[in-house]
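Narrative of activities, Objective 1.

The group set out to show that a structural description can be obtained from nothing but a protein's sequence at a throughput compatible with the screening campaign. Below is one input-output pair from the validation batch, recorded exactly as produced.
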Amino acid sequence: MGFRGGYDAFDDFQRRHRVLGFALAVRQKYSDDQGGYLAATITYYGFFSIFPLLLVAATVLGFVLSAHSALRRSIVHSALGQFPLIGSELQVRTLHGSVLALAVGIVLSLWSGMGVFLAAENAMNHLWGVPFRRRPDFVRSRIRALGLLLVLGGGVLGTTVLSSAGTVGASYGIAWKIAAIAISTAIDIGLFWLAMRLLTAHDVSWSCLRGGAIAAGIGWQALQALGGWYVGHELRHASSLYGTFAGVIGLLSFVYLSAHITLLCAEGNVVATRRLWPRSFSVVLEQPATRGDERALAQRAKVEERRSDQRVEVAFRDDDA
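Output recorded for this entry:
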């Protein structure tokens, strides 16, 4: 059997097996939607939103820890104490609160965080094939993004604290650690479920988003655990210079992987709800189109409708005719 014969046989195999066919259909649609570029856009805004948040966190810690030496010692020995810049300031006790820094940090956090949710809204609408003419206008999209930032951003902060408690409070016993991580994962799933519903202009039922929310919540929790291990073990012995580089690269990678996980899980919801599988395996050689191909590519083309009087129609050649 030559390469063409083996390729055709694999294409036929994946069309007949649900799990493999579904996974390849998600990968194909993610490629069609240019998911990597959508994730990179979210990463751009997400990465820059971290630094105003660090400014706020450092300022708040400066206010709180000035009168609580015991709390300072416990934080110094936690993962946060190993973080570049903040960790060194905690160890030499030069971290102080500033009202001006706090105000500037809050304003910049709101502005950059709103950009994250605008990019996420655009990505979700793109995945669900919402035409541009049906998306919120300039003003409403920003009001919507600000509201989502306050609601979902606060929830993410809470789950991060709970997840960290599972690591910091490990000395209290395995039950404490398991309970903290389980509660954090459950809240993560709920937040992803809510975010996937609110970030999409299309009217999608809650049940259609359940599978992707569960997968995203578990993936996010695993990524947080990996990030905590990286900060607590790999950065602990790094010098100030290389620790800063490693911290920045780690943050960038964390945000990028988080965006990929979220969008892939959301893409799975779209493929399952719209029955966009099986797809032809046309990565190297073009194979005959399936019904899933036709539905997915038609949805992709209709995204470009930008006016109420514009209609995009998609036709496929019938080779048998």
